[in-house]
Write a structure and sequence with these properties.
229 residues, archaeoglobus fulgidus dsm 4304 fold, 5 helices, 9 strands
Length: 229
């Protein structure tokens, strides 16, 4: 993948991290539509706290079959504490190492986490998107901030996620009939309607879209195999 350029250091205090997130938010492009989409990426990180090791994984799938064409896992030391709202400083550095090694160029990236639906509108999906300058979609399993109404039970049903000011910051999307919804938000260079469309298109009958589902399986397997040694 193309060279990644970072505009800030990673060895920062929580207060400095918040200021960096404010700059990330200012750099986010909260709109965009994709043309022909062939390759999609899913990314996730697993942590082993006793060894202070992060296992970052990227899976590249080819549409429309969602066939896996490439995987990459990178091990890194954990360098930032677990602080809600600042998880991108814990997860982004190892993920960038993995993205830097992939050969295929994805047109869009799915992140297991939030983007705009974040206290400072600068979640992991935004941070990754700005640094890679790629379209990124955040797809989380639980809400971080905001209020919403439960969508209808049928797959594809959706409702808005609102912040305290009443602004739409994401979507609550039913990806499988009668199964708990996921929380979709923009990360960078993609609009919310497009993010919803792509999330539905990347489903294979599971609650979690296939790119992040496969990334989760990849990093958990890498973690298990490492702990056996």
């Amino acid at each position: 993948m193309r060279q990644i350029t970072c505009f800030h250091p990673w060895d920062v205090s929580p207060q400095e991290a918040i200021q960096i997130q404010n700059e990330v938010r200012a750099r986010v492009i909260p709109h965009g539509r994709l043309g022909r989409t062939r390759f999609v990426a899913g990314a996730d990180v697993a942590f082993d706290n006793p060894s202070q090791t992060a296992f970052a994984g990227v899976v590249i799938l080819e549409l429309p079959e969602l066939r896996i064409v490439e995987t990459r896992v990178e091990r890194s030391p954990i360098t930032f504490p677990y602080i809600p709202g600042l998880l991108s400083f814990r997860e982004t550095p190892p993920l960038l190492k993995a993205f830097n090694k992939i050969r295929h160029e994805p047109e869009v990236i799915f992140i297991d986490g939030h983007g705009w639906s974040h206290p400072r509108s600068a979640g992991l999906a935004c941070h990754i998107g700005v640094l890679l300058n790629r379209p990124v979609i955040g797809c989380a399993k639980s809400v971080l901030v905001g209020s919403y109404e439960i969508p209808a039970a049928k797959r594809g049903s959706v409702s808005n996620l609102y912040n305290a000011a009443g602004e739409v910051i994401g979507a609550v999307l039913r990806t499988r009939d009668h199964v708990k919804p996921v929380f979709v938000s923009i990360g960078h260079r993609v609009g919310l309607k497009e993010a919803i469309r792509l999330t539905v298109a990347c489903g294979k009958g599971y609650r979690i879209p296939e790119p992040t589902r496969q990334a989760d399986l990849l990093v958990e397997k890498a973690k298990r195999e490492a702990l056996k040694r």
